[in-house]
Amino acid sequence: MPKLILEIEPDLHRMLQQAARTNQMSLEDECMRRLEGGIRRSRYMEALLAELRADDAQRRAQRG
Fold first, then answer.
1. What pLDDT, on the 0 to 100 scale, is given for residue 64?
2. Dihedral angle of Cα 63, 52, 27, 42, to the nearest 10 degrees
3. Where exactly are the structural domains of the chain?
4. Which of 2, 20, 26, 60 is least buried, going by the fewest C-beta atoms within 10 A?
């Protein structure tokens, strides 16, 4: 599985950790749930997802 490393603000990190505890999930699972649309996405997550999709589209275009 590809690995993704994010630099996020401390407040967002704390909020994600709290949500993971509340939902009895790992931090990774909470992030994946949000990226997959499990809840209303924040503008930050929307921008991140758009950037990831653009990078993926660019890689595919370069391959062929």
1. 74
2. -160
3. 10-63
4. 2
